[in-house]
Design brief:
The protein is mainly alpha-helical. The strands form three sheets. A four-stranded antiparallel β-sheet has the order 3-1-2-7, with helices on one face. A two-stranded antiparallel sheet has the order 4-8. The protein is built from 15 helices and eight strands. The longest helix has 64 residues. A hairpin with a 2-residue loop joins strand 1 and strand 2.
């Protein structure tokens, strides 16, 4: 029901927009075009799921990423409804709810891909199945997870706290680096469009779409805005992108031919050298890497300073993988001939992003880890000297021990053993080092408790397995004894001698 509701709502929205565009355009009587109108609406619904289709002149694969927002929001609401209707017992069961939505939704998408086929247009059914399943699984699962967290009063920070420290820090760093890249790409695109705004206005006037058509044209451009942002990110990274065969838009130079009459394309620079102002965008990947590297080490600093640059570079590698995936989604083809190749090269974008962001993140992570470690060691040394000075005993300063200060590669140990603790003066605010030490002690006690619980569960499972093994052996022995008794009875019946005397023999003397 959740999958069918989401698919039906999405179709209703797309059909409404399609009818509005059909009414605003010159058309034949309604009865002659109703079938084509509905097929076009279904095709637009498939396009909103990023499903490419084949036409007579080639393949149409330059699909708007922003249009995916419509089915994603509807599936998110369906996932929340499913979580409210069917109680989800534990966090690890959320994927079952996501699968419950994704399976039927993928089947609906594949069926509609078959129904939308015509002599001139043929949607890709395998892509419809895959993209329908992926979008429904992610959006529906996120909705079910959000509803379960809301009902139980669980915050997002608490959910992130369930992840291992290093995995959480890498996720935060990758998200920050990717977000910084996208923000820089958005600013670059808006600046380029603002610089060429007269050309965009002239293209809109040349199209003369009217009021309704102009509104639909604006919606289409908003749907293609994420694609334009990804193109701008690829330009800032260096490889750039193409707008057809034998064209390139990159910081090294611009070479494009005649472009389609689309207002957003006014942001593409003219042929020749790249604008000098746009070269400032080349610093965006390094700034994004610095942000990602700092946040990677903020929540999980490393005791071994050599490990911090490694994790920063890993953050850059994961960011490069995300950029490669975005480049693959943003590009495509627009028919045949010179418009068959539009967009960036995904492997080049991923490789350059991994190197640029990774190097910047490694340096920033090393600096952030050094600064954090130095500050914490100074705080620990000051906290150790404060009680001695308060009692009037001038103890000789001891060199600070290289104790762990986070959840890095080394083993985490408490800063102060519990047996050496002394009563703190009443009313004194604990210092940062004392709070940090207390958190370490709490984590150590929780870890010991988890280890003890796991050991108890292992012993209980071992006892249960031994008990079941004994029961199985007893049942096996009992079956063997039963079979042995049956064989003995059969042998007695087979080889035993039974004799019954006749009446004459009984009466004889």
């Amino acid at each position: 029901m959740a999958a069918a509701t989401a698919a039906g709502s999405g179709l209703a929205v797309i059909v409404t927009l399609t009818i509005v565009g059909w009414v605003a355009a010159p058309h034949a009587p309604f009865g002659e075009e109703i079938v084509e109108l509905l097929q076009g609406a279904v095709l637009a619904w498939l396009v909103s799921h990023h499903v490419s289709f084949t036409i007579q002149d080639g393949q149409f694969g330059l699909l708007p990423i922003g249009l995916v927002l419509i089915p994603a929001l509807l599936l998110y609401r369906s996932g929340r409804w499913l979580a409210r209707s069917c109680e989800i017992g534990r966090l690890r069961h959320v994927h079952l709810a996501a699968l419950a939505i994704a399976g039927p939704y993928a089947a609906i998408a594949g069926t509609l891909a078959l129904l939308a086929r015509t002599d001139t247009v043929e949607p890709s059914m395998p892509r419809a199945l895959v993209m329908g399943f992926v979008i429904a699984f992610l959006s529906g699962g996120l909705g079910a997870l959000r509803q379960m967290m809301r009902e139980r009063g669980v915050a997002v920070r608490a959910l992130l706290g369930l992840m291992p420290g290093r995995a959480r820090s890498l996720l935060v760093g990758m998200g920050a680096a990717t977000g910084s890249l996208l923000l820089g790409g958005l600013l670059l695109f808006l600046a380029a469009l603002a610089a060429n705004l007269p050309e965009a206005v002239e293209a809109t006037r040349a199209l003369a779409p009217g009021v309704v058509g102009g509104t639909l044209l604006l919606l289409v451009q908003f749907a293609y805005l994420p694609n334009a942002v990804v193109f701008a990110v690829c330009y800032a990274l260096g490889p750039g992108f193409t707008v057809g065969a034998a064209t390139v838009v990159a910081p090294t130079g611009v070479s494009v031919g005649a472009l389609p009459m689309f207002p957003m394309l006014a942001a593409v620079p003219a042929d020749g050298a790249a604008p000098v102002v746009s070269l400032a965008a080349l610093g965006v990947p390094f700034a994004a890497g610095a942000v990602g590297g700092v946040l990677t080490q903020r929540s999980a600093p490393d005791v071994v300073s050599e490990a911090a640059p490694l994790w920063g570079f890993v953050c850059g590698v994961t960011t490069g993988m995300v950029c490669a995936a975005l480049g693959e989604l943003a590009g495509g083809s627009l028919g045949s001939e010179r418009l068959t190749d539009i967009g960036p090269s995904s492997w080049q974008v991923g490789l350059i992003a991994a190197l640029e962001v990774g190097v910047a993140a490694a340096i920033a992570a090393w600096i952030a880890n050094w600064w954090y470690t130095r500050r914490m060691r100074l705080a620990v040394a000051a906290a150790a000297e404060a009680p001695e000075k308060a009692r009037g005993h001038e103890a000789e300063p001891e060199p600070p021990e290289p104790v762990p200060v986070g959840e890095g590669l080394a083993t985490v140990t408490p800063l102060h053993p519990p047996e050496d603790e002394e009563d703190e003066p009443a009313g004194r605010e604990p210092s940062e080092a004392e709070r940090f030490a207390e958190r370490q002690r709490v984590r150590e006690r929780a870890r010991q408790a988890r280890l003890a619980e796991r050991a108890a569960r292992r012993e209980a499972r071992a006892e249960l397995r031994a008990q079941r093994a004994g029961e199985r052996r007893a049942r096996t022995a009992e079956k063997r004894r039963g079979r042995r008794r049956r064989r003995d009875e059969e042998s007695e019946e087979l080889f035993g001698i039974s004799y019954e005397a006749s009446p004459e023999e009984v009466d004889a003397p």
